[in-house]
Amino acid sequence: MIDEISAAGGTGIGIQADVSTPEGCEKVVYQLKEYTESLDVLVNVAGGLVTRAKTGHFTWSEMTKVFELNMFSVFYLCSLTVEMLKKSGNSVVINFTSASMRSGTVGVPLYASAKGAVDVYSRSLSRELAPTVRVISICPGVVETPFYANTTTKQALETWAEANPLKRSGTPDEIAHAVMFCIENTFLNGVSIDVNGGNLGV
User: Fold this and answer.
1) Are 138 and 179 in contact (CB under 8 A)?
2) Which of 66, 61, 124 is nearest to 95 (CA)?
3) 91 — phi, psi (to 5°)?
4) Does some domain include residue 29?
5) 23 in a domain, yes or no?
6) Is residue 20 part of a domain?
7) How far from the centroid of its chain's Cα atoms is residue 197's Cα?
């Protein structure tokens, strides 16, 4: 990705860290501050199922890991970067949630709950930081990425695609376009953008 940015005439840096830990979040922001004092866009996209355990079967450790990765990382990175975002004067935070938070997908109650918490946090933060910083959440449905390929059977993916009104899953480019729309439309704030082909039942 850094090579692609450079080829397009831009400048990019890569920072590797585990944002499910406070140390990882702090590392990202510490290294970022070596290059800039302000931040125009923050996209919190890190996430994962961690476990498919139903209620009555997950452990405290699994519960903690799901929320650390999907919720705490978002909360803490927003907190660590808030002054950088304010310095920009016209910045935006985009937090990724999931269609599972709307449908209550069976088998991933922890993941769906964590994403739901991020959605509520985003709305609260949009009022807290306005008018200097906008905050939006993007709620994707099933997308053709390793996230699903590594955790879901091919049969399940085909079933979900057929159940979608558009008869297919989404693509990474379509999600990227939604991110760019949120960045460029400066009157968007405090909303959740569904990018799921019209299917809320995944």
Assistant:
1) yes
2) 124
3) -110, 170
4) no
5) no
6) no
7) 18
**pLDDT at 159 > cutoff 90:** no
Can you give the residue range of the structural domain that contains 132? 39-195
**Domain count within the chain:** 1
For residue 82, the domain's CATH number is 3.40.50.720
Which residue type, as a one-letter code, is found at position 49?
L
Please report whether residue 5 resides in a domain: no
Residue percentage of the chain with pLDDT more than 70: 98
Three-state secondary structure readout of the chain: CHHHHHHCCCCCCCCCCCCCCHHHHHHHHHHHCCCCCCCCEEEECCCCCCCCCCCCCCCHHHHHHHHHHHHHHHHHHHHHHHHHHHHHCCEEEEEECCCHHHHCCCCCHHHHHHHHHHHHHHHHHHHHHCCCEEEEEEEECCECCHHHHCCCCHHHHHHHHHHCCCCCCECHHHHHHHHHHHHHCCCCCCCEEEECCCCCCC
CA pair distance 74, 66, nearest whole angstrom: 12
| Rg for the chain, CA atoms, rounded | 17
| Predicted structure pTM score | 0.91
Q: Are 117 and 72 in contact (CB under 8 A)?
A: no
pLDDT, residue 201, reads 56
